[in-house]
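Exercise 7. Predict the joint structure of the components listed below.
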Amino acid sequence: MDFSFTEEQTLLRDTVRKFVQKAYAFDTRSKVIRSDAGWRKEVWKEMADLGLMGAAIPEDNGGLGGGPVETMIIMEEFGRALVVEPYLQTAVINANAIRHGGTAQQKEQWLPAIAAGEAICAFAYAEPQGRYNLADLTTTAKKSGRDFVLSGHKAVVLGAPYADYILVTARTSGGQRDAKGVTLLAVPKNSKGITTRDYPTVDGLRASEVMFENVTVSPDFVIGEVDNALPLVERITDEAIAALSAEAIGAMKVLNDATVEYCKTRKQFGVPIGKFQVLQHRMVDMFMNYEQSVSITYMVTLKLNESAHERAKAASAAKVQIGKAGRFIGQQAVQLHGGMGMTDELNVGHYFKRLTMIDTQFGNVDHHLKRYAALTDDKAAA
Amino acid sequence: MDVRFSPAEEAFRTEVRDFIEKNYPAHLRGVARSEYDSREDFLAWHRTLYKKGWVAQAWPVEYGGTGWTATQRYIFNEESAAADCPMLLPFGLSMVGPVIYTFGTPEQKKKYLPGILSGDVWWCQGYSEPGSGSDLASLKTKAVREGDHYIVNGQKTWTTLAQFADWIFCLVRTDPNAKQQEGISFLLIDMKTPGITVKPIITMDGSHEVNEVWFDNVKVPVENRIHEENKGWTCAKFLLSHERAGIAGVARSKRAIIRLREMLAMEKIDGAPLISDLEFQRKVAELEIDLHALEYTELRTLAGESSGKGPGLESSILKIKGTEIQQRITELALEASGHYAQPYQRDLGDNEHVGPDYAELVAPHYFNMRKTSIYGGSNEIQRNIIAKMVLGL
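Solution:
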């Protein structure tokens, strides 16, 4: 039993922490999220130069050869700084899709580019009608000779405004919610027939509605098996959930530390408000919520390479814990900061907003409670 | 025990409903206050009710009030909420107005009450300070007497809608040597007086509701003081108890749950309406049951008021449970919206909105409503009040 980090992993954490401390002062971030671009190319490049983009990409493909633990460390530090660049979408989701589902040629084509920071990728999995069901797809990819013709509307695609490629789930056969008939395609955003409507999100990111209208996609851009990509989509989504959990614990830690510090210094009725037992117990509950979230983040991270069933259960468990803890910690951090916690000026509200939105990504608490229960049932029946 | 309304009360309900139907401005129907475009939007409904003689529902008739019973006011609130009428701004009608007619001189009543009734004078509340939130009596803004003026220096904060205000009512320290509550006076200050600066505070949902108000050697005539010097805390306590009446927002929450249900009928999960989802049904049911209980708690309070007791300590229950329910409604609306809770749409052009209409503002509303458990005496302070005053702990 060992929960310690290797020397390299500790070094990686130090590197990332120093990098975000320098590049991501809160005031700097506030300016960036209000700017026209909404992100910084030079920050992206520096992430690549530091090796972060390829942290979990094999050395043969231009990466550092790390794994889920390295991703967790980076995402946790990014969560502490509320990094807005689409690292999750590019270096985690797209890189994993290619690693697990790509051909040797696709790996050679994409992974070094991702590691070098030369390919920015988004993940278009959600649709307006689909809620959190990954298989509820009205976007279709129809065979036309060798090629596929892609049509449909993808919702709230984070990072899409500045992406070069969009990883798209589409239906190649079957009914709207069938498990069979799902195909994954990595489509260059400049393909003819793609239009986007770009907008900011409430938590300072950028996203797009992406419309595909008879977009011709070469079979070279299909990732994994035609008609049978749902298991791959579930896998990369579960891995994304592990990374999001790490981001969330980074954000929770900042809120908890800020709240304790504030309650030690803010005086009312002649004493620091942290002297009031009712607030002490509240902060203890915040602390326990955080510790439980750290634990479950380690759990899901360590189970990502187990069987699909074990991995899925762990991911759903983590998403439930993170969703509940994120809500409690976010709400209480605001409450204990009083009026100041409500302001745009203080960082507290920004962390609260990010934690709130993490719950809406890749399925919320309710969705993953049901998924977890269903997975447990299946096993009992089997 | 009888909670049925009398035939006269039912007739009153019909009268109110008809009046709202015929007179409520259509362009404001269902628009949240945070989305209003202009000062006139805030005042439109106020002015309509003023013309009808219905604006000062809780005031005595002699000062221009309706003379309604508590039950009539309850019915009016229910009908207003059901028709999505905006809440009337409380600063004049529910806060400073009652203080003026209770503690003011005849001249002060004559000078200030008409503008509050007509809506021509917009008031804001100068209570909280950066160092004085829950501990209001520790306030530091000071007023030093010089002849027939006070010179006011200091800073107020969280001043709601001060950007539109003509006047501010302030708690100021007039005796720095007295015990905290005994050195405070209640002053009315014209916002146009030299030395006053209003600075916006943007809240995390992106809206501009609250402000800082700075006083730099502001000259205020002594005749603008309500009640005796150093007796302002009496006015403050009186006002706080009035502020809490109606804070439960039962009628508004009922309406908000209807809207939530409409939303759940439109949002789909695996092709079926989200409201058919058992987990969601259970959550909405729990919320409604909480609200039923709160409604009857409010009715019990009203009955107590009708029999001559003022708003009592139950008002702390109404504040705590009322705000918890309001927050829970916005939380469920946010959950229901799924992915479309994410776009920030306030600054988008008219044709640029994305996702279903019902999801457009759910996240900003959810963030904004976190304030309700903080303002008006935080819910922690309300629990302290119950512990101390009701349970005797």
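Discussion. Chain A touches chain B through 49 residues (CB under 8 Å).
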